[in-house]
Amino acid sequence: MRRTIIAANWKMNNLTSEVINFFAEFGDAALNSENEVIIAPAYPYIPLASALSKNKNIEIAAQDVYPKAEGAFTGMVGGKMLADLGVKAVIIGHSERRRIFGEPNDLIREKVKFVQENGLHLIFCVGETLPERENGVMFDVLKEQIHSAFDDNLTLAPEKITIAYEPVWAIGTGVTATPEQAAEMHAFIRKIMKEKYGYEDSRILYGGSVKPENIQGLMANEDIDGALVGGASLKASSFMKLVNF
Ligand code: PEP
């Protein structure tokens, strides 16, 4: 049985007062949900979000990690810091990291390795751009992203390896993949995970303009195990509808 995950990626949004207001309004929404609820605030707000979400069935995640425990890496946040803050899940390979910050596959592979060595829950993002979809190479792109990051060597328990299929053309654009498009890609990822890595029960989330109005259609498919949500997760009023869709 794969438990549905509804995850929030706040990116570089939500200041102190907004985080406080979010949790005040969100209340027990996650406690009342049967889904696994994850929220990834920006690094400086992790302690505040952790404190405000204590005992509320919410796991606080990081949006990234630098793949070293500690040391002379100006501007970075590493493994010991995440552990110190009680973070148990990390998003790796988000398309904004790949595209805006030029993260190459070998750095992503190092991060995946680091997350595994530290026993964290890996939320690994893959997805094709619009030109890649228009050229019909989306399956090759996903295969390459997965194979290059996993390096034949997955060690975490299946419930700690989550893939987020996030077509780049759907992120923050208001354009959502149709349930059929998402289902086709999820089935493809599931096949790779099973046949190449022997992971049948990893969760595969859909991300890309998920909102309260479209979540049910997407989640109706048996290969879609939840959602990674950006814009519609910033306000409690909308995220609470998503966690209890
Ligand atoms: C994301 O960035 O992971 C995402 C899915 O964003 P949005 O929901 O805003 O498209």
Overview of the structural elements:
The protein is globular and about 45 Å long. The protein has an eight-stranded parallel β-barrel, surrounded by five helices. The two termini are about 20 Å apart. It is about 40% helix and about 15% strand. The model has no long low-confidence stretch (mean pLDDT about 95). It has ten helices and eight strands. The site of phosphoenolpyruvate has 13 residues, from strand 8.
Describe what is shown at a glance:
The protein is built from ten helices and eight strands. It has 245 residues and is of the alpha/beta class.
Which characteristics define this entry?
38% helix; 8-stranded parallel barrel; binds phosphoenolpyruvate
Give the SSE string: EHEHEHEHHEHHEHEHEH
Which compounds are bound in this model? phosphoenolpyruvate
Return the structural class: alpha/beta
Residue stretches low in confidence (pLDDT < 50, at least 5 long) are none
Task: Give the termini distance in whole angstroms.
Answer: 19 Å
Strand content: 15-25%
With strands numbered from the N-terminus, the spatial order across the biggest sheet is 1-2-3-4-5-6-7-8
Name the helicity range. Answer: 25-40%
Average of the residue pLDDT scores: 96
Give the radius of gyration: 17 Å
Main sheet record? 8 strands, parallel, barrel
Oligomer: single chain
Secondary structure: number of strands: 8
Number of helical stretches of at least 4 residues: 10
- Overall geometry comes to globular
